[in-house]
Each structure stands twice: as structure tokens, then as C-alpha cells.
């Protein structure tokens, strides 16, 4: 299992605490330092069953700079959103956990984190 984190994020630290308490095996990816590629984002979005706008942190300053609030949320704009997330990883909701069984979750709650544990 892999968890995408920002170490400064309290939700990320809480997710790591749950994984550690359950003695889960995982790899940490500091996605701000090691941003996902567009293809990796597509894969994770497919595993999550979500669209890029569903995992975008629209409150970030760069979101306002890009004008994301006015971007269409439709299939034709999907690649534009993915490109923005890849170029500005701070926009990616966190933490994202990809489990070995192919599932994934945005682990913002303890229940969500536990849902990907074996």
C-alpha cells in the first residue's frame, strides 16, 4: 500500500497513525516533492472512482490563480484538470491511499483509512 502525504497535514499524520497502530505495511510518497504524473493520476482516479475535480483542493491560492472555479467539470475538460494537478500537486486532496488489492481511498477519516486495511 502507498500513501500520498504532505507531512504538514494533520489528516495525513492521523492516517499514518492509524496505519502504524494497525501495523500496516505501506510506503510513504511525499507527493509535493515527488508529484504524480498525469498517468499516475488517471490510475489513482480510476481506482478511487472519482474525477479530478473531486480531489482538487479548490481553496488553495494556486486554484484561484488558475481560475479553477470557472473550469467546466465535464469529460472534455478532464485532461486539463489532470494537467493542473500534475503541475501543481498542492491542489491534490490528501491523503490518498492506494491499497495492494487495487482499491484506493482519500483517507481523511479514520473509517476511510481502515477501509483499505486487509
List keywords for this structure.
4-stranded mixed sheet; alpha+beta; 4 strands; 118 residues; Glutaredoxin; single chain; 37% helix; globular
Give a brief outline of the structure.
With 118 residues, the chain is an alpha+beta fold. It contains 5 helices and 4 strands, in the order βαβαααββα. It comes from Nonomuraea pusilla.
Give a verbal description of the structure.
This protein is of the alpha+beta class and 118 residues long. It has a single domain (2-114), classed as Glutaredoxin (3-Layer(aba) Sandwich), CATH 3.40.30. It is built from five helices and four strands, in the order E-H-E-H-H-H-E-E-H. It has helices at residues 10-21, 38-48, 61-66, 78-87, 110-114, and strands at 2-5, 27-30, 96-98, 104-106. A four-stranded mixed beta sheet has the order 2-1-3-4, with helices on both faces. The radius of gyration is 14 Å and the shape is globular. The N and C termini lie close together (10 Å).
What is the architecture at the second tier of CATH?
A: 3-Layer(aba) Sandwich
Assign an overall shape.
globular
Structural class: alpha+beta
Query: What count of domains describes the coordinates?
Result: 1
CA-to-CA gap between the ends?
10 Å
Q: How is the CATH topology named?
A: Glutaredoxin
Amino acid at each position: 500500500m502507498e500513501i500520498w502525504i504532505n507531512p504538514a497535514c494533520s489528516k495525513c499524520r492521523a492516517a499514518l497513525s492509524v496505519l502504524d497502530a494497525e501495523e500496516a505495511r505501506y510506503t510513504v510518497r511525499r507527493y509535493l516533492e515527488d508529484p504524480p504524473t498525469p498517468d499516475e493520476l488517471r490510475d489513482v482516479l480510476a481506482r478511487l472512482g472519482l474525477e479530478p475535480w473531486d480531489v482538487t483542493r479548490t481553496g488553495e491560492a494556486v486554484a484561484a490563480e488558475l481560475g479553477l472555479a470557472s473550469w467546466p467539470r465535464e469529460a472534455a475538460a478532464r485532461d486539463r484538470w489532470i494537467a493542473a494537478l500534475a503541475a501543481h500537486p498542492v491542489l491534490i486532496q490528501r491523503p490518498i491511499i492506494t491499497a495492494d488489492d487495487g482499491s484506493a481511498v482519500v483517507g481523511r477519516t479514520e473509517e476511510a483509512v481502515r477501509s483499505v486495511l486487509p
